[in-house]
Design a protein that fits this description.
Elements lengths: L3 H6 L2 H27 L34 H4 L4 H5 L7 H4 L8 H6 L11 E4 L4 E4 L25 H10 L10
Antiparallel strand pairs: 1-2
Amino acid sequence: MPSGTSLLLQTRRHFFQDCALGLGSIALASLLNEGRARAETPPLVNPLAPKTGHHAAKAKHVIFLFMAGGPSQLDLFDYKPKLAALHGKPIPDEFIKGKRFAFMDSFFAKEKPKLLATRRKFAQYGQAGTWVSECLPHLAGIVDDIAVVRSMATNVFNHAPAKIFLNTGSPQAGRPSM
């Protein structure tokens, strides 16, 4: 939308030139579309309809576990050897520089927070060598039959909006969910 000053500076000649361009483009679009109007139109396709994949599906069912209030992934599946090595030490600057943290900005100004690693022991299981904690001894036996997703990332850092984002694709409430 033009600002108020550009409208004041517009001359009658500019106005008619702009109108001619607008009407000319409408006329051209109409002429180019004439042949298409008589052609057979393809049926409307729902862009959200399921599509066939590149490979045949092997899985018949999916169990999605959303464990709100459950144990942390750091205690179950997400082994962090560097975090274990830095346990109890102040957080290095490269970990926090240029990043936002919920409710922590005033805390960082006073002192650097100390890192806290899990107390759980981890071991690798299955052919893939998936790290599983001691909290899940029975799952360790079937770890090759499940998928552990560790590649998810987001810049929604508070828990409540992050949970909404995971289930809806938006950090704001009110969107359809899984």
